[in-house]
Backbone:
């Protein structure tokens, strides 16, 4: 996917996860790389509202598709919870609640063996 457009990255890396998510699986999308490598651009967090459709990143594309697919399945009820966490130098930052201290956010394993975040805001 090197030098691919936003749509190609989304279709190859995220869309299969999204389909599994809507079948009941947990899904995580992680952007990893050096400072300045394009993580924020790829995720679509910077000025998403003023970005052209072609340049939209993973987050706006995924949210639009999730709610479109939920709307199409009007016989089912869904609860969608989202965490938006930045990990930098082994410290966590909750981007949905920036006043949260990184010491309050911890990665744990629940009683079913799932990896979960504790202390973050889920919206």
Residues:
């Amino acid at each position: 996917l090197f030098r691919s457009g936003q749509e190609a990255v989304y279709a190859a890396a995220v869309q299969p996860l999204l389909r599994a998510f809507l079948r009941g699986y947990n899904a995580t999308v992680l952007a990893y790389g050096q400072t300045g490598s394009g993580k924020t651009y790829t995720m679509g967090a910077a000025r998403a509202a003023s970005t052209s459709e072609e340049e939209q990143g993973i987050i706006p594309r995924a949210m639009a598709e999730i709610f479109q697919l939920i709307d199409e399945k009007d016989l089912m009820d869904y609860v969608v919870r989202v965490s938006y966490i930045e990990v930098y130098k082994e410290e966590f930052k909750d981007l949905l609640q920036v006043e949260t201290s990184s010491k309050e956010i911890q990665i744990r394993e629940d009683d079913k063996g799932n990896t979960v975040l504790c202390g973050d805001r889920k919206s």
